[in-house]
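Pasting as-is:
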Amino acid sequence: MQRLMLIFLFILSLFKISSTFAQTDSITPVKSPQKKPLLCEVKMHDGSLYKGYIESQNDSTFFVKSSAGVVIHIPKSNVYSVEFISGHSTKDSIGNLTIHLPAIANQYYVASSNAFLLKKGEVYGSSSYFIFYNVNYAFNQHFSLGVSTSFLAAPIMLRAKLNFELTHKLYLGIEGLGGSGSWLNPKSYGGGGLAKLTYGNVKKNFTVSGGYGNVDYYIKPHKKKGGYSNPGHYKNYNSVLIGAAFSYTISHKLNFVAEAFAAPQLGVYSLSPAIRTTGSQNISWIFGLEGFLNTTNAVSLPVIAVPYLGFSFRL
């Protein structure tokens, strides 16, 4: 059972590591939620794309200013969608289509995150079971740095993320983390790396990931009369890590999310379906079921299923 709990903590520490457009010229102008213009990508019905800043609009026309300073007049009747790409690319729109500003829920599945671009200067994070926490700071839309730990500050790990947009709706993410068992077991240490590909938008997306993790867990010496019967030594846990995750909007306040991970060398596999709230921009609650399968012969309970509770937040 001790081995299973160690593996459980190992997995947690590593992973805690569209719509249609009505063709009309009577679209109601929408005020930008920010004072400065947002960088946008305007997609036309014929498939062509324009990137720039929406300087102004009227009932029939967008006035989009390019980085070169040229103002382009775009008839609204020819527009399929508008995506704000300041922060990260999301399915946004003007007029008849609802504007979906990026919510913190859009970055997460159950415990893991996708590879969407970040928002510069944002402090964000998540918690699992109110025990495990990670907090991150986004230096720009591509890079963030953070800390993963528990309320006991053990283990404590440094986590770095790099996210890039490869093409429309396709994103690449790279994560690295490493740390120690903190004051409870300072001689234990571990780390790993993970690469992920995310395809989709905030309404529907999926991510596949792969990487490697290693933990060197220090077993303290056991003292008996006459000396040490068992000197201190390290127990090594390492494995290739494979994952897949999915998010789908089922209402304007709820997403269905699911993720699965495998550590074949450890014989550990997990599957977690859940419901995530999306009604708030800055906090998202997650309720679901987390199941683990252990195929080794050293455990008495090969299958474990527990309720999952957590939340994600933006400060």
